[in-house]
Amino acid sequence: MNLLVLLIVVPLISGLLMLVSPGNGVRNFLVRVASMLLIALSVLLLIPGAAPGLFSLADIHSEHINQGMFIAEMGIALYILYACIRNRKIIATVLILLQAGLLAYFELKYGHGITVARNLFIDPLSVVMAQIIGIIGSLICIYAVGYMKDFHEHHAEVKDKRNFFFFVLFVFLGAMFGVVFANNLLWLYFFWEITTLCSFLLIGYKGDEVSVNNAFRALWMNLLGGLGFAAGIVYLYLGSAHTVELDQLLLLGKTATLLPAVLLPAVLITFAGMAKAAQMPFSSWLLGAMVAPTPVSALLHSSTMVKAGVYIAIRLAPVLQGTSAGFMIAVIGGLTFMIGSFITISQSDAKKVLAYSTVANLGLIILCAGIGTYEAVWAGILLIIFHAISKCLLFLCVGVVDNKSGSRDIEDMDTLIINMPKVAVMMLIGMAGMFLAPFGMLISKWAVLRAIVDASPVLAILIVFGSAATLFFWVKWMGKLITVIEPRHDLEDTVSSNEWVPLVLLTVATIGVCGLFPLVAAVFIDPYLMATYGHTTAMTQGNIIIMAIMLALVMLFPLSFLNYGKNVKVVDPYLGGANTNTANVFTGSAGALQTIGMRNYYMEWPFGEAKLSRLGIATTVVFLLIMLGAAILCL
Amino acid sequence: MSMNLVLISALYVILAPFLGGILAGVDRIITARMQGRVGPPVLQPFYDVLKLMQKETLVVRKSQNLYILFFLIFIIFTGALFFAGGDLLLFIFALTLAGIFFVLAAYKASSPYSFIGAERELIQMMSYEPIVLLSAVGMYMVTKSFYVCDIVSFHTSLISYMPGIFLAFLYVLTIKFRKSPFDLSMSHHAHQELVKGITTEFSGRALAMIEIAHWYENIFLLGFVYLFFAGNPVLGVVLTLCIYFFEILIDNTFARAKWQLTLNSSWAISGVLGLVNIIALSYVLK
Amino acid sequence: MSSLSKSPWIFHYDASSCNGCDIEVLACLTPIYDVERFGIVNTGNPKHADIFLITGSVNEQNKEVIQNLYNQMADPKVVVAVGICATSGGIFAECYNVMGGADKIVPVDVYVPGCAARPEAIIDGVVRALGVLEEKRKRIKEIAAGQVTATIERASLDDAEKILELQKIAYRSEAELYNDFSIEPLTQSLDEIKADFATRTFLKAVIDGNIVGAVRGYMKGTACRIERLFVAPGSQNQGIGTRLMREIEATFPESETYDLFTGNRSKRNIFLVKKLNYKISRTEKVNKRVERVYLQKAGQNRG
Ligand code: SF4
Questions:
Q1: Is residue C137 located within the same domain as residue C155?
Q2: CB-based contact (8 Å) between A47 and chain C?
Q3: Domain boundaries, chain A
Q4: C35 and C127 belong to one structural domain
Q5: Distance CA A271, CA A227 (A)
Q6: In total, how many domains does chain C have?
Q7: Are residues C275 and C174 in the same domain?
Q8: The complex's ipTM?
Q9: Among candidates A147, A607, A36, which has minimal Cα distance to A342?
Q10: What residue's CA is closest to ligand 1, atom 7?
Q11: pLDDT in tens, C248-286
């Protein structure tokens, strides 16, 4: 059987097994086996020749598969409709009716006439995505085994539906593989809708009112995107392009005269991608998704869901290149990056900080897609890789801290370097990976800046302000972790190996991928760019050497901890001379003992969440409308 | 990278502390004269640093001075990169990295005053970073290269292309030189509120390293200013020194601002002047 | 003249002055007197300062503050008492809560009399302090180079306060190592240590009249327990610790074994006593990472 099909089907089957497995032990075992299998299969993709370049499911009657998919799709629509009506969610009801109606009409009327040469395909871009989904996604599943045990111990009020939970996780992964391998847009759309459904189910896992409401918010926003997707397919087929294949769409996009036939569908599908990638004005669904257990957040933020959104946008980038609609997409991405980064400054909930930072970084990727030049796409793919690894690591670390210390507020994380030294160090590495030279995200940001100044320098304004804010909120968090106020007890003892393994691997990956990034670029990104654009970009030799020197210097830093503190005298911090015997207590006025406290700046003004989100939503909606207008007029 | 550039870079690493120290000494004398005083000898900054080397080193947390060591290393690295004609963006990133080590050192010291100093230092970094990056972008638009060696050998002075960016850069330069009104994080004159802000808990060798890093930093900052005038080397050097004098004048004229004013004004000026300048550039250069 | 005396940084503390002397101290910074000519900077931070300038008399409220600030200054350091209040308590000396001059708490090197002390006098005092500073620097260098030998002698109850003070300075470093600032050596009170004097023999190491190290021991049955060996941070690595150990062992020649314990992270302590032929007898877990290491050595009397 073909590797691609295996990757889609294996998670599905193992998920079903988990659903019916008799006990926690069996299921946990299944989760580990399935995860390792998925990792192995994804790595197998790297071996040349293991997966055929293009593949049509000739040996299976694709007609039956199509019918099966259509029926499943309608089933999903019915389920969503039922859920919407039961919870009286009007917007979602309307959207699902519109979307399912449109597609049912299309499939029933034209479905038989559609001929598809290739249903699935694989190229270096899909391979990169498959690695992210397969490896990082599976690591999260392993982590979830340990996490969910603690979670249900701490949250007795939540009904234990772990079999169902893992079932959805794996179906999610399978659907993600489907998204990145599908060439037939109808298939892609089918998998796309499954990811929407899965995220809906996972966000609502806790079952309380907030979770359910947030799940529905995620649902309607993604359904709106899905509606755009469906409209795009219909327009593509009924228009002069007359195809439902992704590679055809891209091919047509290359010729200027044929562009009008594909630009609007491409923009509509990118629009769906932007909703999925939680771009403003849709960013609120991803923030709401925070209520779900941490593995879900990690999954949504790093390897699935939002990555489906940016994947499709990057995929369509060649079509968008140089168009006004593309520029508008870039502006929306840039605004999302800037405003998202600003808002993060005012947040102290660790998961929310991570969520806003995801929104911001995805904005950067969407910006790359909107610009669409090969330099931009190069930067965009790098961003996808680095972001997935570092962000996943950070989410998993925060999950551990939350479970063990009972708080995920950054203000409670001081002294973490003493209380949970290993986790704290991993978090520091993850954060360094997010914004610091010479680590991954910074390399990518650098590439983005270069791509922008060549294409449309004005956008640089958004980037420079956004990244200044990024610097601020990451460093103050890092600082909090290493500040030692009062030593407390060891919280790290009870972290299980299910949690350690993914954490350690991701930490190694954060550093490793950064050290090996020229290789990553050469193996994954360059071939894709060569195939798509005919040329590729790279960093100059000299700069790579300088980066390597920097990396080596930074690596010296942890090493120097082996031997330090010679010839120094330890004294109390300066507290105006009013120190007492206890390091963090001083004698205040009238002899009263006071404990010192150190709190970060959050700058509610000018970085308050409510005001800035309103501003962001208003401006991005305007740009979205301009984008659609530009696409219709085909500018 | 030619042999020449490597040589310049090596010279920088060796000479910058001396130049920077003398510059600091001159700065102190000029400041004193502006205040109607005589002021210390020119070599005073060297006496200070030598003295600090001889003193005992006090710490609150034993590892805190490690961060300072890396701050110094990366500041030297950043300057060496600049004078070796390296990539301007990389230079800015390295500078940020160095700054972060400094800030983390203060966090590590776990003292309320160094904590406030660290937060304020971060606000300062956030205030100056946009326009520094925009300067690099502007220079690239004009010269089509991010490399310092190409920018410096461009035939006309860049200031004629990017006066807006230059003005905004000048505004935030006060932050980088740690001059009033934007000396929020470690002012010499803010005992009441800050003690010594970010450097409160550092003494002896660590404090000496901070001082030396500051000298290195001042030299490559002046180098950055020079890039705007590089079309005419002689005039360029004179103007760069004038700018330094101007900064001293500002230092002695203004009272320390709050962080709100620092952040808002530098962002507003960077945003408006930067945007206008870049839009103008993209039309002019078309 | 070394660079030390060319760059004296001052830290000014107003103990309970009437503010008269403070104004005069500030006057020194103005253009008329301009002490920056001599490289003098008013730092406002004890950790950066070389000269501790005290104005006003010491009272019950500020005695601990003065002590803390003095402890937080890096060696070499000098204290200048400015004004008659800081010198002797001045006109406030008879006040119900006034203890007297600054020298009641910290060793004063230069006294600048006057009420208020005139700026010229203050500057003169600081310049004299530079001479003291220079001498102290030389002495510290000699001590660090091991050219000065400490005398080891038995401590008396009068030393209790000084020993306790040094103990608290020396054990900070241990506390940081274990991230536990509630260890007993840091929390011990003066009364407790005085009570210890009744049951234990204290030895002190003295250089120039200053205590730079101490150890205590007592007999329990036939074994000698040795406790709390510490050496001032500036005087370490000169064999003072070893000499204290030898001396305390010699104080109890009758004992069969010598016992002591330390934490597993205190590598230097373990190294030191192992060189004196102590062997690890057992370890005891305190928590997951910290162990208490017991070391033992046989006495002459044993078999
Ligand atoms: S010496 Fe005189 S002027 Fe100085 S503090 Fe005492 S009373 Fe005031």
A1: no
A2: no
A3: 1-316, 321-570+615-635
A4: yes
A5: 10
A6: 2
A7: yes
A8: 0.94
A9: A607
A10: C18
A11: 888 888 888 888 888 877 777 888 888 888 888 888 877
State which of C144, C171, C203 marks the end of a domain. Answer: C144
pLDDT in tens, B110-144: 889 999 999 999 999 999 999 999 999 999 999 99
N- to C-terminal Cα separation, chain C: 61
Q: Does C271 map to a domain?
A: yes
Contacts of B60 in chain A (CB under 8 A): 570-573
Query: What pLDDT does residue B103 have?
Result: 95
Same domain, C140 and C161: no
Q: How is residue B107 written in tokens?
A: 């966090």
Distance of CA A86 to the CA centre of its chain: 30
Give yes or no for a contact between A415 and A485, defined as CB atoms under 8 angstroms apart. yes
User: Does residue C227 sit within a domain?
Assistant: yes
Give yes or no: residues C185 and C217 share one domain: yes
The predicted pLDDT at position C183 comes to 77
Task: Tell whether C286 and C207 lie within a shared domain.
Answer: yes
Chain B residue with minimal CA distance to C41? B188
Residue of B nearest to C72 (CA): B58
Query: Of the candidates C89, C111, C144, which is a domain's last residue?
Result: C144
- Whole-angstrom distance, CA of residue A215 vs CA of residue C7: 66
> CA-CA distances (angstroms) from residue B257 to A132, B103, B132, B191, B195?
48, 20, 21, 15, 17
Pick the residue from chain B with its C-alpha nearest to A454. Answer: B141
Q: Which one of C45, C176, C267 would you mutate to disrupt binding with B, by most B Cβ within 10 Å of its Cβ? A: C45
Instruction: Give distance in angstroms: CA of A382 to centre of ligand 1.
Output: 70
% residues pLDDT > 90 (chain C):
21
Asked whether the beta carbons of C268 and C303 are under 8 A apart, the reply is: no
| Ligand 1 center from residue C45 Cα (angstroms) | 23
Average pLDDT in the A544-556 region? 85
Q: Domain range spanning residue C74?
A: 2-144
Count of A-C CB contacts under 8 Å: 55
CA distance linking residue B121 with residue B105, whole number of Å: 12
- Residue C303 domain-assigned? no
CB of A249 closer than 8 Å to CB of A243: yes
Which string of DSSP letters, residue by residue, matches C63-126?
Answer: HHHHHHHHHTSPSS-EEEEEHHHHHH-GGGTTSTTEEESGGGTS---EEE--TTPPHHHHHHHH
The residue extents of the domains of chain B are 3-284
Q: Count of alpha carbons within 13 Å of C138, Cβ hemisphere only?
A: 8
Which tens digit of pLDDT belongs to each residue from A588-610?
888 888 888 888 899 888 888 88
Contacts of C182 in chain A (CB under 8 A): 582
Q: What tokens were used for B234? A: 């002689």
| Probe target for ligand 1 pocket from C82, C85, C95, C118, with the most ligand atoms within 8 Å of CB | C85
Binding site membership of C21 for ligand 1 (Cβ less than 6 Å): yes
Instruction: Note the Cα C75 to chain centre separation in Å.
Output: 10
Contact A483 B86 (CB under 8 A): no
Strand C291-298 and strand C279-285: pairing? Answer: antiparallel
Q: Percentage helix, strand, coil, to 5, in chain C?
A: 40, 25, 35
- With a 6 Å cutoff on the Cβ, whether C18 touches ligand 1 is yes
**Residue whose CA lies nearest to ligand 1 atom number 5:** C17
